Each structure stands twice: as C-alpha cells, then as structure tokens.
C-alpha cells in the first residue's frame, strides 16, 4: 500500500487510476477519438500528494489560488502542466505568469481587461508559445461573481482570438451552479456557447475545448461533450479549508 494511504482511505495513486479509467471509458462511450483530459485538482493539498499522482504517471494538475500555486510549483517537477482554475485578479497575473513557467492554461478568463493583462504579462515573461486560455461562462443564470453571461461569450472569445496575440483561445469553461454542483442545462449551455463562438470565428467546434465536469458529474459532462474534466476530491480526498484565510 502507498505510504500516504490511511485506514479506510484509498491512496492517491489508486484513486487517480480509478478516475482516469472512468474518464477514458466515458470518452470511448461518447465516441471520442481522443480521451478527455483529466485535470487533477490539487488545491489545499500538499505537494507530496501531487508528487504521488505525478509518480503514478499523471502530469496535468489544477490549482485555484495564485499564492498556493506559486508555493507548490517550484517543489514539483517542471514537466507538470498546471491549469489555473480559480478566480484571477488582474493584480496577480504577473506573479502567476512569471512564477510558473510551466503554466499550461488559465481556464478562468472572464473579462477583456483580464485577457489584456494576461496577454501583456505573457509577452513580458518571454514565453515562446502563446498561453492557452479558456473563457469562463456563467451557465447557471444565477447571480454569480465569476464568468461571463452566455450572451457575452462571443464578444470576449473574439477579443481573445483577435486582440491578444500572446494568448491562444483554447475553449470555454464552466463551474455550473453557484454551489459547484452542475445540471445538464449547464453543460448544454456551454456547448451551445462553444458552437456560437466557433461559428463567429470560422472555427470547427472540435477545435474549441469544453472544460466542464467535476468529481460528482464528470462522466455526465463527458457524455455531453466535455474535453477537460477537473476532478479534485475524488482523487485527493475531501478538502480541509481551515488553513485558508
Ligand atoms: C475545486 C474545483 C474543482 C474540483 O472539485 P471536486 O468536486 O473536488 O472534484 C473543479 N473545478 C473548479 C473550478 C474548482 O474550484
């Protein structure tokens, strides 16, 4: 048994393998040529837990808090692909982009101002490739601080694609409901927004990713088109937020 496993709790490696198999099975059931990407969400978890998943062969991880990622990334191998999936304030973009050279995607772009800021910082950091970003969409129709309204997605995606040369529009992302649960309507809404963006930009819908699905619903999300699921607690165990301010 792996060192980190506790009585009654599976090791990170075992849980990861189980989730990865379920992601792959859901992908082939949905007829995908390429299996969806599994982002292992390690927020609030120590670098050792990430290391255990890394040693089991996993390379893509997601974090929500800039300072936590800045602390964790240097302790871990540089071939990790980090996805930033938390709310991002403009005044933290520079630290994030410069401090995490192996940042692979920012999934939470929700304003042109933020996109412009990331674009400038990517240029300033001298990254060789454009940084992949996703536009975060509020698909719940409920009051939410984060994510653009569906009606505003095409405008923001067009801004990223046309006015941000150091960014690559990777696709769209949603959390779902304000309580972090999701309904089929959230997934349908994101897929519809993706089709509208593709039409507006003359792209194939297949060239735009859908980041949707978390621990409780990633298989349902894949069935409805997700190409990028973000799974935390099912891999790393329940989170303890007591250390967070
Ligand atoms: C925490 C978080 C996740 C993972 O949630 P789980 O339910 O633990 O799988 C996914 N996406 C975002 C944006 C998150 O903040």
TrEMBL record:
Coiled-coil spans in chain: none
Protein's UniProt name: Pyridoxal phosphate homeostasis protein
Source species: Monoraphidium neglectum
The family this protein is said to belong to: Belongs to the pyridoxal phosphate-binding protein YggS/PROSC family.
Family matches, as PROSITE patterns: UPF0001
Start and end residues of each Alanine racemase N-terminal domain: 17-239
Database matches in Gene3D superfamilies: Alanine racemase
Co-factor requirement: pyridoxal 5'-phosphate
Task of the protein: Pyridoxal 5'-phosphate (PLP)-binding protein, which may be involved in intracellular homeostatic regulation of pyridoxal 5'-phosphate (PLP), the active form of vitamin B6.
Record carries keyword Signal: no
Presence of keyword Ribonucleoprotein: no
Modified residues (N6-(pyridoxal phosphate)lysine): 43
Keywords in alphabetical order: Pyridoxal phosphate
One example GO MF annotation: pyridoxal phosphate binding
